[in-house]
Amino acid sequence: MELWKLFMTALMPVLKLIIITAVGAFLALDRFNLLRDNARKHLNALVYYVFIPALICSILTKSITCRSLVMLWFMPLNILLTFIAGSALGWLLMKVTKAPHNLQGLVLGCCAGGNLGNLPLIVIPSVCKQSSSPFGDVDVCYQKAMAYVTLSLAVGCMYFWTIVYSIVRAYSCKVSSVRNVDDSTSYPLDLIESDPENHTKPSNGLVVTLEEKPTPDVGNHTKLMETLKKLVVKLNLNILLTPATIAVIVGLVIGVIPQLQKLFIGENAPLRVVQDSTSMLGDACIPAITLLVGATLLQGLKGSGIKVSIVIGIIAVRFIVLPMLGVGIVKGAVHFGVIHHDPLYHFTLLFQYAVPPAVSMSTITQFFGAGETECSIIMLATYACASVSVTVWSTIFMWIVT
Predict the structure, then answer these.
(1) Ordered structural domains, the chain, with CATH
(2) Cα–Cα distance between 150 and 37 in angstroms, integer?
(3) Is the pLDDT at 397 greater than 90, yes or no?
């Protein structure tokens, strides 16, 4: 009977997610035309630049202190482990299924980057609100849950736009390079980027060096500056400093400095109106993201030529292998006293291994123009399975931690 109560506690948040997702898919139908391509792009921009940063900043300023930050040190490492394990499993899946070159980045990205944003934001705090929640007082549980999932969203966002973005970018460049060699009207991409002025291409597609340019004699300082410039370009700091990352920095600075926190937080805080306004904007984040998920998944119904084995493999990686690895990692950390004793915190760490691929994968595939239709199919299949998988694993995780 206790297990059944845990199952119902885990099921309710997932049902909420399914209902709002269905509304998003309904609004994206041609008959209503409310969440078609242009509308999705504009709403996605609002979520990315306004709603997510507002949510992160408003919650971190209220929930994170120096003491809590020290206690939560394991979460960034745990999320990094999900990306590393997912990447390794994705590489094995790519080799076993012999995924086409143009889909290899997509396969790796879907296995590596999970939905650490809107799904935990909906499910974990909602679990706290259930009358049968095993995590104690509703208000205390909810406040801690929002702090945990917000930090999870922020760290996951930074990892996703560095690790997964770099993976998809690397494989997209490989595909582009191969295509350009075969195309008699274009250069191989890697050679153009290295020195476009030093090469030309004859009709057979081979690259020949026309002349050797003399290397000017430059000082060590100039060489160092040129190296630093190249490093900055390769790191692409614009990707690292996303709005969510900036919001994390601002939220943590205000949260860990008591003098600043007193300016924004509390009934007598002189700048409380700023915090209240930010919080109101952040409240729009979860429903907006979930509506976008439904509208995006609708595209998957159009179908594509992707191998069924690839889709099944990604489902197995994200919903079977990774959660089992997560249980071993988190239980091991608890056993050796690496993390503090808090069942809700343990549940959050475990939940990070059982989520479907990140919705932002569709944004990356659109950006690089690689596997957009196939990504919609993967999203549709994985999120359809997630309605069952997330409920089952949430029940198991609650049973384990309590």
Answers:
(1) 2-185+239-401 (1.20.1530.20)
(2) 28
(3) yes
